[in-house]
Amino acid sequence: MTNTAAPATTATSNSATVAAATATATATAVPAATSDAPLGRTATHHVLTTGYVGSTGPGVAATVSYIADAGRHVIFDPGMVAGVDRILGPLAELGLGPEDITDVVLSHHHPDNTMNVGLFPDARVHDHKVEYRGDQWTNRDAEGYALTPSLRLIRTPGHSPEDITLLAGTESGVVAFAGDLWWHSEGPADDPVAPDREVLRASRRRVLAVADLIVPGHGAPFEGDDTTPR
CB within 8 A of 189, min separation 6: which ones? Predict the structure, then answer.
């Protein structure tokens, strides 16, 4: 499958870039209206494996998802799992192999959410500020970045400073692949890892304002309601 990638820029980093990224992360934690929603409604999605944490499973595993739209085949958070067959097996049932994946989105850089990114060596890899491919990277802010008209990234810091959410417009509504903004449907209400819990709460409110379905970092998808931790 042929991919068209944006021209790569030189891999540089300086204090101004870091400061700008930090400022953007803080600013975009403010709850937004439903204008966050992608314009398109043509994406489809499948949870390849449902994750768990120590309180809900034998160890820690990521919820790994597949999203498709407009010729893009996307894996979200290919993190820790008991075996790679938990990712590749369900993908094969969809008629796809690792070479078919065009994009990988990482919600943040904790290893339990990124461990198996190497399964997809031909894919573009997206995080909060860069698109990586091969030995090149392209600097770009995730906030508002559209992979397709139905797939949009937004910054949702809180669990870590670099958290992002993938919003997918589907026939049935907007699905938010939110990483560890919520580990599972119960939260936790007070994330012990979050460096700034007020920023986390603001990001949660932002996602709840737009999402019809939330896919958390280590649990099954759920619909947000008045009982959802925020």
Answer: 229
